[in-house]
Design brief:
The protein is α+β, with helices and mostly antiparallel strands. The chain contains 6 helices and 5 strands; from the N terminus they run αββααββαβαα.
Length: 186
């Protein structure tokens, strides 16, 4: 049922958001050098690597590490990068990953391929057994501000309690977190 819901919602969202997606893509291209979409290697279900698209918010010379590991992340942001991140518009291309089946709407956020501490803890807590999501229990309970052990604890809670009702609650709360720009540090 979850996969059917993901497909239906992703198709609906793609139809509704096609114009905003095109506008954001043009804005990214006009304000910085490089492609509008950045494809990063992410860790999916059972720790399989997949390519996840996002609108590019960082310059093309940014090291391929998690933003919190950069000494001064703001120096790498594109002119509209901060806005795209705070509004979560940079996440829109991930509808492709949901349609493809690499992701779900709700699940733990996919780790970068080189976030070994996060990957290890998730594997230890069997979080790697569920598909990563566009949003998740950890995102509505702290987002960027959470230390990795806390994030994994929340992801493990979701794994143990996942249900259609919990997914709907997470999607509903995500909408309000995004509107309030709650928990975004860069």
């Amino acid at each position: 049922m979850k996969r059917s819901f993901d497909l239906l919602l992703a198709l609906l969202a793609a139809c509704v958001l096609i114009i905003p997606v095109m506008i954001v893509a043009v804005c990214v291209k006009l304000t910085s050098a490089g492609p509008a979409v950045y494809w990063s290697d992410r860790v999916g279900r059972y720790n399989a690597i997949f390519r996840m698209p996002k609108f590019r918010t960082m310059r093309t010379d940014t090291p391929a590490v998690a933003t919190h590991l950069l000494s001064n992340p703001d120096q790498y942001l594109t002119p509209i990068g901060s806005f795209l991140r705070k509004t979560s518009l940079d996440e829109l291309p991930q509808l492709w990953s949901i349609l493809k089946g690499d992701m779900s709407f709700v699940g733990p956020r996919p780790a970068l391929y080189n976030q070994y501490d996060l990957i290890g803890l998730r594997t230890e807590h069997k979080v790697h057994e569920i598909p990563p999501g566009l949003t998740g229990w950890a995102q509505i309970n702290g987002r960027d501000e959470l230390p990795i052990p806390d994030k994994v604890s929340l992801d493990a809670y979701y794994r143990q309690h996942q249900s259609f009702g919990l997914d709907l609650r997470i999607l509903f709360l995500t909408f309000f977190k995004v509107i309030k720009r709650d928990g975004v540090t860069h």
